[in-house]
Write a structure and sequence with these properties.
alpha+beta; 4-stranded antiparallel β-sheet; 5 helices; 4 strands; 52% helix; globular
């Protein structure tokens, strides 16, 4: 995994849009403090719960197709300024390629922030998909990190 995006100009643009001084700094300090106090693995369930709470507060409209689901999710992500996704469906599950995630301005905490934000997104997407008729037994998890702003998640039955 790289710590920067492939396009530094695009990275700088999104960072300016997504990480307003003050609020984002406070959020970063809170996440860093939580992870340092309880550990990364121990903080994951709480962060997922925060994602689930966001999904309940900002539910998706019903989607009939994967294309509609992708459009509805992207509309919410645009509202939050959290990047965008592409969904690819197959016989074994769905792949969610999320790009332009918010990235911490502090290079030393970018990876920690990415892992924490991915946990939040796991909860958010899980709850949204449950609201679309998905099964509670189907897992939504981070599959691959390309960079701190480019991640693929997988929605599939546990193996």
């Amino acid at each position: 995994m790289t710590s920067i995006t492939a396009n530094p100009l695009l990275h700088t643009y999104f960072q300016g849009q997504q990480t307003p001084a003050g609020w984002f700094d406070l959020l970063t300090v809170m996440i860093d403090g939580m992870v340092r106090n309880v550990g990364e693995a121990e903080s994951q369930p709480f962060l997922r719960q925060m994602g689930e709470a966001m999904a309940e507060r900002f539910p998706l409209p019903g989607s009939e197709t994967v294309g509609e689901l992708e459009a509805n999710i992207n509309a919410k992500l645009a509202q939050f300024n959290w990047g965008f996704i592409d969904i690819e469906a197959s016989d074994t599950g769905m792949s969610f390629h999320h790009q332009a995630l918010p990235v911490s301005r502090d290079e030393n905490s970018q990876t920690r922030w990415c892992y924490a934000f991915c946990a939040i997104l796991e909860g958010l997407y899980s709850r949204w998909l449950l609201g679309q008729g998905g099964g509670s037994h189907v897992a939504f998890s981070r599959e691959r990190l390309y960079s701190v702003s480019d991640v693929t998640f997988r929605y599939a039955n546990p193996q």
